[in-house]
Specification:
By secondary structure, the chain is an alpha+beta fold. It is built from 5 helices and 3 strands; from the N terminus they run H-H-E-H-E-E-H-H. It has a 3-stranded antiparallel β-sheet with strand order 1-3-2. Helix 4 crosses helix 5. The two termini are 24 Å apart.
Length: 135
């Protein structure tokens, strides 16, 4: 399953923006696979997501308890009958707080090189999280 090898690259997105000086002020990354199609203006779509899912920067105050790592995924319409099946082709990540999640996702893909889709790895993590288990 050659395609999954390349899907790992999306989990390095924060490392990439660290190397590009012009992106030093980027706080959020809205990642979309190349085959995602939007049929409406992008800015209102992003504003709606931010409002609906209360997407806000984590409290990174040094005196605060460390905020949990977080990625925002959305339900895959192809599997709408399931209770949750994340579409890994579109996600929202915070520059600082999402790094751990991206690493866990990449490690899961590395441990399962024969899986056909990267969604299997992210959904495995989601199921374990919902069940209250560690990565």
């Amino acid at each position: 399953y050659e395609a999954v090898k390349y899907k790992r690259f999306k989990t390095y997105i924060m490392d990439y923006i660290d190397f590009v000086p012009e992106l030093k002020d980027v706080e959020w990354v809205y990642y979309m696979d190349i085959d995602i199609l939007l049929g409406a203006p992008l800015v209102p779509f992003i504003q709606e997501l931010e409002s609906k899912y209360n997407i806000q920067p984590p409290d990174l105050d040094e005196s605060a308890v460390s905020a949990p790592s977080k990625l925002y995924f959305f339900k895959n319409m192809e599997y709408a009958r399931r209770s949750f099946y994340a579409n890994s082709g579109f996600f929202i990540a915070h520059r600082e707080s999402s790094r751990e999640c991206l690493t866990i996702w990449r490690n899961r893909m590395n441990k399962r090189p024969t899986e056909k889709f990267d969604q299997a790895s992210i959904n495995s993590i989601v199921r374990r999280t919902l069940d209250g288990l560690n990565n």
